[in-house]
Amino acid sequence: MRWADPRRVAVTLLALVATLALPAVASAHPLGNFTVNRAVAVEIGDRVGIRYIIDMAEIPAFETVQRLDTNADGTRQPDEIAAYGASACEEVRAALSVTIDGAAAALESVADAKVAFPQGVGGLETLRLECAFAVTEVADGAAEHTLTVTDTTGGDRIGWREVTARATGDASISTSDVPDVSPSDELTAYPQGSLTSPPDVRSGTLAFTLSATAQPSPTAAAAAPAKRGNTNDPLAALVGGDLTPPVILLALLVAFALGAAHAISPGHGKTLVAAYVLGAGGDARSAAQIGLSVAVSHTAGVFALGVLTLLASEVFLPERVIGWLSLGSGIIVAGLGLVLLARQLPRLRGLVGGARDRKHRKLGSASGAVAPEHHHDHAGGDDHHHDDGHDHGHTHEVPSGTLTWRSALALGFAGGAVPSASAVIVLLVAISTDRLLFGSVLIAMFGIGMAVVLGGLGLVIARVGGTARGAQGGWLASPFVRRIGQWVPVAAGAIVFVTGIVFAVTAANQVL
Q1: Would you tell me how many other CB atoms lie within 10 Å of the CB of residue 269?
Q2: Is the pLDDT of residue 33 over 50?
Q3: What share of the chain has pLDDT > 70, as a percent?
């Protein structure tokens, strides 16, 4: 077995450093690995032409390539590609709705489908499809007409959608509610400022006049990039490279580091874990349970999503599955928050009562009145004396270690159930390169990296909380600090509940 080129190892180490410096895991496709992006280009010449372009990111392209290989020999034959292109363009033609002057217009294909496979991350491919259609007839070509085109393809698949319209020769467009120039250069160069909120334009309306003279064929769509060079995923690149001992060790370290970076990136449960452990009085065992459940649930989620991608992607869209998992996680978190708040009700009553007593004493002191003493005469002659000068704001403390194993496992599931797109990519690269075992180990290391960060955070918070509760002197034992500490579990329960509601509402907006 030969050793890796030292230069390659150095480059990979630099990639790892860059990844750790920027915690968000990069994806090869600029809009994300799950996206299917679509462009409708209306061209007015001596007839009405429509070009339709699809740009699939790595995961949907992987699904499509599996279906394209109809004889299951693991290779793409020209006839298989041509058959896929013809079938896909026919589906597009049937799903495009075109009306001229309010009447439905028929479309016909005017060119063979063009199919390309630009290289994406880790050796996986993206897919680009181009279809060309024309409206079969426009009555009275010298008059001005109104055209409306509506794209009903793709359903709920996430991605960039645009519609453009332009005139050539002496044809003209007098009014239009869509631009004449593609903002993405027909899905080849996406504007950086639009990546976080891509357009979702599915229809366009314009008033036009056809050219009186014959025009050349519609301009070809922008050429597909041979390779997506925007970003890359160092872990996926390692899976598809030469497996030498240094590379294997480096891949394991990268997988662990990416999992840790994924855990500390926005929206992955740091606040949730900290608040719940602090509010429920968790201990070291609880932190270990959280970490273990994070690792197991994330790894299981990646494999489940990989199976759906391979076997049932037409029924269960991966991005929809992730949306439902996010919704379920949010509901679980909200439920945990409610349970935590319910357990803190006695504490809350005591705190409110204590605050009321302190307020009364302050008012009494300000008016010069002396707080009355309470004497309770009992039949036995005992006289129980209670001095209201003492603070009755005592609370029912929740002891350390009351975070149950069920709650810890549910919390870990909520933090790890939504699989990382980067981990799914690694699984698909491993499958495509016949390295499923190696890829599985890397995915497990990714989950362990998440687990160490979230479980470690829980452990630190548990230790800090235990130290604060057990302090016998110093500033931690001061009345002011203890009073604040009494409110911390209540506030933690509220934070967990609100966080769960926000997660659930955000996910519901995506899947419902």
Answers
A1: 26
A2: yes
A3: 67
Return the structure tokens found at 123: 């050796």
Q: In sequence order, which residues have a C-beta less than 8 Å from that of residue 321 and are 6 or more positions away?
A: 304, 305, 308
User: Do the beta carbons of residue 237 and residue 26 sit within 8 Å?
Assistant: no
Q: State phi, psi for 235 to the nearest 5 degrees.
A: -70, -45
Q: Strands 144-151, 203-209: parallel, antiparallel or unpaired by DSSP?
A: antiparallel
Distance between CA atoms of residues 258 and 271, nearest Å: 19
pLDDT of residue 21 exceeding 50, the answer is no
- Nearest CA-CA partner of 187 in 27, 28, 52: 52
pLDDT-derived band at 12 (thresholds 50, 70, 90) equals very low
Of the CA atoms within 13 Å of residue 8, those in its CB half-sphere come to 14
Query: Which of the pair, 250 or 467, is modelled with greater confidence?
Result: 250
H helix or E strand, kind and range, residue 375:
strand 373-377
- Quote the pLDDT of residue 399: 41
Q: How confident is the model at residue 377 (pLDDT cuts 50, 70, 90)?
A: very low
In eight-state DSSP terms, residue 423 is H
Q: Which of 235-244, 275-284, 323-332 has the highest mean pLDDT?
A: 323-332
Furthest CA-CA distance within the chain: 117
Rg of the chain (C-alpha set): 31
Kindly report the three-state secondary structure assignment for every residue of 382-406: CEEEEECCCCCCCCCCCCCCCCCHH
- Residue at token pair 């010069």: 368
User: Distance of alpha carbon 159 from its chain centroid, rounded?
Assistant: 13
Predicted local distance difference test score (pLDDT) of residue 456 = 81
- Residue 132: per-residue pLDDT: 95
Between the alpha carbon of residue 151 and those of residues 88, 94, 110, 129, 212, the distances in Å are 14, 10, 19, 16, 28
| Residues in contact with 377: Cβ distance below 8 Å, sequence separation at least 6, in sequence order | 383
| Beta bridge partner(s), residue 65 | none
What's the whole-number mean pLDDT along residues 245-252? 85
Decide: 297 and 413 in contact? Cβ < 8 Å. yes
Nearest-angstrom CA–CA distance, 242 and 308? 28
* Residue 479: how many other CB atoms lie within 10 Å: 8
Strand-pairing partners, residue 386, are 374
Burial bucket for residue 379 (CB in 10 Å: 0-12, 13-18, 19+): exposed
HSE value, Cβ hemisphere, 13 Å, CA-based, for 501: 8
Q: Who contacts 385 (Cβ-Cβ below 8 Å, separation ≥6)?
A: 373, 374, 375
Element (H, E) at 169: none
Is the pLDDT at 125 greater than 80? The verdict is yes
- On the 0-12 / 13-18 / 19+ scale of CB atoms within 10 A, 224 is buried
Question: Is 161:131 a contact under the CB 8 Å cutoff?
Answer: no
Please give the backbone phi and psi of residue 171, each rounded to the nearest 5 degrees, phi first: -70, 160
How would residue 255 be classed by pLDDT, with cut points 50, 70 and 90? Answer: confident
State the DSSP H helix or E strand holding residue 512, giving kind and residue range, or none if neither: none
Helix (H) or strand (E) holding 29: none
